[in-house]
Give the backbone structure.
Amino acid sequence: IAPALLARRAIAGLRARGSAGDLVFVSSENAITPRPYQPGYTASKWGLEGLARTLKLECEGTGIRATIVRPGPTFPTGFADDWDPALVKRVLETWNRLGLQRHLRWMPADSVAHAVVSAVTAPPGTHLDLIQLGPEAPASLRLGGDPP
C-alpha cells in the first residue's frame, strides 16, 4: 500500500503546481514469471504493476508519466542474504529445472538505475510504459552460426 500512498501524494503535488513529472515503479520479472519460494514477492510485484498501469491511465494528458522498470536477476541487491546457502542452491536449481531461469548470470544493480534514468529523461510527450531488462546469457548458450 505504501507505493500507492506515495504515488498519490506525488501526483497531488505535481498537479497542484501544474508540473509534469515521472513515477517509476521498480517491479521484477516475477510479475510475469512467478517462481516457487517467492509467493509474497511475486504477488507484491504483480500488484505494483497493476497500480502503475492504473495511474498511467489516470494521469493521461497531465504530463505525469508512469513507467514500470522490470529487471531480471540482479546482483548485489541484498535479496536472500539471510537465506541458508543450501536453500539458495535448491531454489536456483528448481527455477532452472522448471525453465524459469535459463542461466545463472546476473546484471549489476546499476543496470536498473540506468533504466530509471532512461525513463525520466525521455523527451516530453514520450511514454516508456515498460522497460524490461535482464542479464546477457553466457557465450556457451550462443546458437551456432551467424544469424540469418
The mean pLDDT is 90. The first strand starts at residue 21 and ends at 26.
